[in-house]
Amino acid sequence: MATVRVPILYNGEWTQENGEYRFTGTQIRGIKVPHSTTLKQLVEKVAEVISIDLSEFVISMKFKFKTSSEPLPPMEILNDCDVEFFLEEANSGFRNPLCITYEHRVNIIEPNGDIRAENSPHARHLSWEESHYYPTVDLSASQPEVDRVRIEDDSFIPHPTEVHLHVEDGMVPDIEARTVHLDVEDMTLPNIEVRTDSPPVLTIIQPRCSNNYLPRLGLLASSNSISTNDSFLSVDNLVSNEVGDDSDGFMERQQFSSKEVLQGKLSAYAITRNFEYKTFKSSKNLLVVTCVDKNCKWRLRAVKFKYDGSSSSYRAAEIRQDFQQQYGYDISYHKAWRARECAMQIVRGSPEESYKLLPQYMAMLEKKNLRTRTFLEVDDTNHFKYFFMAIGSSLRGFSSSIRPVIAVDGTFLKGKYKGTMFIATCKDGNNQIYPLAFGVGDSENDASWLWFFTKLRESIGEVENLVFISDRHPSIKKSVSTVFPNATYGVCTYHLKQNLRAHFKDVDVGGIFEAASKAYRLTHFTYYMNEIYKVSEAVGKYLEEAGIDKWARSHFDGRRYSIMNVNINYSLLILMITNMIKID
Hints:
Number of helices: 16
Number of strands: 27
Radius of gyration: 37 Å
Largest sheet: 7 strands, mixed
């Protein structure tokens, strides 16, 4: 089915300057609708895109033409024919946006009990549950002579007020006298306009906020807030004419767990205090709401925030600084450090408890993941020594689909008990990271690497044409030759290039070295090596001593494919950190 692309412009209003109409919208979205779209379908689609509840708001849709002659007023879409005309214009190259305005729905009770939206150009029948925004009072339909009385006043009603209608002796109010007796509690009676051209119904409309009275929204100022949760929203700026102390209101530096929580509380607050507001700007990181009255100056602004000028970990020095700013009291560094340690233990538990949970964790891994291999070794005093883990799905994929090239490396752990994490990774057919096995030991020494490769051998078995790539750590090379005597060992070209920079700081042969390492033909390799010798003979000799058959593709005995370095291990570590995988 053919569709039409329609740009949507909203959060604005129509203005007229020098006879020309303009729409000053602040946000724009886009929709795609079929040619057969009806008015109802278009309204529902627009309401969904701009997040408008049709049970509370009425949408007005207009668009304007670009003409070379006298400017025309915007055309409002009121029926299916207007929708068809607009879509035909859009399909023929017309690209003016559909301009959207909306206002709160005013519901009127008809004599037959139905409810209609008085201010809606697209009036429709609503159920009683849908018409909850404005309170209504329905007089008996058996009294057709009763006037329709409307209370409309621009003054602000500070609290919910109940209005009682009394008709003396069951009689209808005197139409000629144009009066109706009303008892009003805790408020000054607003002006009453009596009309005789409407059905017998009394509609009480909650008035809007004006400059004479403002809702009490707590302390009002600008501030910068800090939270430990990136998803939190903070009331950053709150502007009004009145400062109040209300426990149900909003305070400077107040924090909310999410944008939805803030919007929910704001809606409840508006209902409780009987005032209206509109969303001026809304995004993932910002929410700004203002009063519906242009003459009213109050505003609430909330922002998503992170730590400002601090590291990823909350350090004791930062705790001292924040404590002094928030409470005006200086605490010692040692006290701040101990407070941080207590908080970390509450949130994450202690390292000792985590190590005690390792046996249960390993048992659940093997139970829930078929063919998963886990090993734990302790010393003579029953203290942790080594740990190994290879998930069953990774092992099955490696044996069936992955190129037999394994990059191995180690990295320091920064927890309380330090240690080293061992990583074995591969690349799949799309050159994506493929984690194979993980281990933890005391450090990168002969014993720990030998233990890790032994457990890896028990997990993957004998693999034909297997290749290992690592940095030039002697323990890795020795362990590979011991545990996997039929495998081929290669050197990571990235680490070797870094060694060149460290040992020969005044010599730049990085580009020539990369070309030599990736060359397939011996003639090409010989050419690049001669170029390196021309630049520096010492660099050439250093590369030969490192073992040309270990880093040059043209001299390599095995099949390392295009995997020349172990950078995939670092990519995996970054991925783990990003997903908040921490090992204590």
